[in-house]
Write a structure and sequence with these properties.
By secondary structure, the chain is mostly helical. 81% of the residues lie in helices and 0% in strands. The protein has a single domain, classed as LemA-like domain (de novo design (two linked rop proteins)).
Length: 185
């Protein structure tokens, strides 16, 4: 009888260790995926001042949009933001960059400028890489959130302080088509 109790205890202990290790592994995958987004965002932040400076020479009346993008970039690189705050801020920054790219299309001489073309190409590439990194992050977050919310792992996750992470989600306003005419009125 004591051997059966010992075997059951060892099996339970092994299950708890396995659950804990699984939760740690999934949390680390989320952190790794977020770090990949951070890397791409750093590239974007470094490119934005060059893009803004180039565009300012050609598009003085778009100053408000340029200023907003620059302010968002400055806030993003200032640090001291939680992952959720970074998610929200970068969603706003993505919207600003999309509007900026649409606004820039109205300037033929700007589109022909070699520096601008190179910056635009780099920004487009970085935006694609950010989108891919966000998809990877969202997959890791979904997997992690599922792991901490299903039984019996949810019991241990709650006791050990594991909490759900926020997904990168596009706000409803950004899902609508861009009204180019409205940008220039």
């Amino acid at each position: 009888m004591p051997i059966i109790i010992l075997i059951v205890g060892v099996v339970i202990l092994l299950l708890v260790i396995g659950l804990y290790n699984n939760l740690i592994r999934k949390r680390n995958e989320v952190d790794f995926a977020f770090a990949a987004i951070d890397t791409q965002l750093k590239k974007r932040y470094d490119l934005i001042p060059n893009l803004v400076a180039t565009v300012q020479e050609y598009a003085r009346h778009e100053k408000e949009l340029l200023t907003k993008v620059a302010e968002l970039r400055a806030k993003a690189v200032s640090g001291n933001l939680s992952q959720n705050e970074q998610v929200d801020l970068n969603n706003q920054l993505s919207a600003g960059i999309r509007n900026l790219m649409v606004a820039m299309e109205a300037y033929p001489e700007l589109k022909a400028n070699e520096n601008f073309i190179n910056l635009q190409r780099n920004l487009t590439e970085i935006e694609s890489q950010i989108a891919a990194a966000r998809r990877t992050y969202n997959a890791a977050v979904t997997d992690f959130n599922n792991s901490i919310q299903v039984f019996p792992a949810n019991i241990f996750a709650g006791m050990l302080g594991f909490t759900a992470r926020q997904l990168f989600v596009i706000p409803e306003a950004e899902r609508q088509n861009v009204n180019v005419k409205q940008l220039f009125s």
